[in-house]
Each structure stands twice: as structure tokens, then as C-alpha cells.
Design brief:
mainly alpha
């Protein structure tokens, strides 16, 4: 009998690896090329949220825009668009309810997995 949970876990690890490599490629391009030549901030945000989710931590907007190499205003604009598209949601912290974290929605996670699987 096939262990479907183990198979899903292996598939998720493979997709996580694809996401990490994609962010590494983007970082290399950012070091060498002007950002307007490869700018796709929404994709970077989605990849980072996917990776963080699998590594067991969450990102707040206050730290996210630095991680994504975006101005705070630009990050807010992209996050609003991702929320509007039902790809990302805001979650209030348990310990500090005033802090807002970002996470992929179920729809966003599934869409991202499909894209990553196509690149695996």
C-alpha cells in the first residue's frame, strides 16, 4: 500500500527546492542586472511565503518589504493585489494581535504548487 502522506511530503519538498532555486536565481539576477529588467515582485512575494511556510515561520509586512527588496509602499500595493486575487491573506498574531503576518491562502498555495511543479 502506498503511503500518500509520505508521497505528498516528498512532493512538497521537491517543490520547496524549486522555489528556493528560483529565489536564488532572482537574487543572482538582482546582483547583476537592473531590477526593471526582471521585476516581478508579486512572484517573489509568493515564493518567499511558500518557502517560509515550509520552513515553519511567517513574514510580516514590516520585515517582508526588506526581504523582497521593495519599498514599503510598493510592497503594500503588491500585497493588496495578492489579497484581492485571493492568493495571500493577512493573519493577526496570537502573541501580539497588533502584528499582522502574511500567508498563502489555500488557493494561492495550490496555484503556486502547480506553477512550481511545471518547472520541476
Amino acid at each position: 500500500m502506498v503511503d500518500l502522506d509520505a508521497e505528498d511530503t516528498l512532493n512538497d519538498l521537491r517543490l520547496l527546492s524549486v522555489a528556493i532555486r528560483e529565489l536564488e536565481r532572482r537574487a543572482a539576477r538582482r546582483r547583476e542586472l537592473p531590477p526593471e529588467l526582471f521585476a516581478d515582485a508579486a512572484w517573489c512575494i509568493l515564493l518567499d511565503l511558500f518557502i517560509c511556510e515550509h520552513q515553519g515561520f511567517v513574514i510580516g509586512l514590516s520585515t517582508g518589504f526588506k526581504r523582497w527588496h521593495l519599498s514599503e509602499a510598493t510592497a503594500v500595493r503588491y500585497i493588496a493585489a495578492l489579497i484581492q486575487a485571493n492568493l495571500v491573506s493577512r493573519v493577526h498574531g496570537v502573541m501580539l494581535p497588533a502584528q499582522v503576518a502574511l500567508q498563502l491562502t489555500d488557493y494561492g498555495r495550490l496555484a503556486l504548487k502547480r506553477v512550481l511543479a511545471a518547472h520541476a
